[in-house]
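Here is an idea for our session: we take a single protein and study its fold together. To get us started, please write out a protein record for me. Once you have written the record down, we can walk along the chain together.
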Amino acid sequence: AAAPALAAALDRWRARGARARPALLLAALSVGVPFATWDALRTRGDAQIDADLVAAARSLATLPPGNVLAPVELGQLVPPFSGQRTFAGHWFMTPSLGARRAVVDRLLADPAAEAGALRRLVDDAAIDYVAVPAARAEAAAAALGGVAARGTVGPWAILVLRRSDRADATPARSDARPQR
């Protein structure tokens, strides 16, 4: 006797729930939107690109096309902001990025101690420009030997290596958009 009454009550509850389920689902999904928006606004500063990195990458746009050796944090901005190629750049576009990053970090951390390896990499990868922190520009220039020109953009130094087609190029700050 209780089973038919319980079955009828469950049927009524299911019928009412069929109308309420979409509303409950919509309410549950929309509750997260304000919280996600608040979190994105609160943390947006962490996702902005450093202005000095952009300025250094844009300065390379004023130079003839070539290959750039730079730390990955600058190297990943080189192609979109300057149109130049980079030895270690975007994670998706750089084969063996982890290995390349380790090599670049090691060589540019102390260019004087790694002079031979740095010169070999520059020759093997046909590097035309080297971007280093300005504090290490003297050591990098001495390690590389053939530096035709040097420019400083914010905390970055851009070294133009001596090559027959690069000897007259000098880096300059550029606020122009990259050419596509």
Q: What stands out?
A: The longest helix spans residues 2-43. The longest strand covers residues 147-153. Confidence is low (pLDDT under 50) at residues 164-180. The CA atoms of residues 87 and 106 lie 14 Å apart.
